[in-house]
TrEMBL record:
Protein name per Swiss-Prot or TrEMBL: Divalent-cation tolerance protein CutA
Residue stretches spanning the membrane: none
One of the GO BP terms on file: response to metal ion
Xref: InterPro entries: Ion_tolerance_CutA, N-reg_PII-like_a/b, N-reg_PII/ATP_PRibTrfase_C
Top-level division of the source organism's lineage: Bacteria
Pfam families: CutA1
GO molecular function ontology, one term from the record: copper ion binding
Family assignment from sequence similarity: Belongs to the CutA family.
Length: 110
């Protein structure tokens, strides 16, 4: 892809409460070609409302880089393999970036 036509790419965010499960899921996404890269942030504290109560939990955040074409399969995989009943699965379009990096995302997720 040229600089004027970068590969459409997405940043997908999800969280898990178990670092080992997060690493397994991240590895699966990359091996399956659903993601070019998954960056795991160290556990942080999440404060959220769930079923009428305020909850506080430790969670690992996954930053998943994927292509627009791979997004539907990635979303389905996350939904099927995520341990939460209602997982956070948020996709943000990457409007701009280093063209070579965007090309790499596209190549890894064909």
């Amino acid at each position: 892809m040229s600089e004027s036509d970068p590969a459409p790419a997405w940043l997908v965010i999800t969280t898990l409460d178990d670092p080992d499960a997060a690493e397994r899921l991240a590895g699966h996404l990359v091996e399956a070609g659903r993601a070019a890269c998954v960056h795991m942030l160290p556990p942080g504290r999440s404060i959220y409302q769930w079923q009428g109560r305020i909850e506080i939990d430790s969670e690992v955040t996954l930053l998943i880089k994927t292509s627009r074409e791979a997004w539907p399969e990635l979303r389905a995989t996350l939904h099927d393999q995520h341990p939460y009943d209602t997982p956070e699965i948020i996709a943000l379009p990457i409007e701009d970036g280093l063209p070579d990096y965007l090309d790499w995302i596209h190549e890894c997720t064909r």
